[in-house]
Amino acid sequence: VNPKINEFLGLKENESLVNCMVIGYPKVKYKRTVPRKEAKITWM
Fold first, then answer.
1. 3-state DSSP helix/strand/coil percent for the chain, to nearest 5?
2. Fewer beta carbons within 10 angstroms: which end of the chain, N or C?
């Protein structure tokens, strides 16, 4: 991780920049999702 990017974004040492991209269509259709904790997201 580039420390200059973390500094520019104002991220603390215990925070990190993560990116996830889902592409395509699923083969199956799910009726519900697995319960998950709420994510801490900062939109820019």
1. 15, 0, 85
2. C
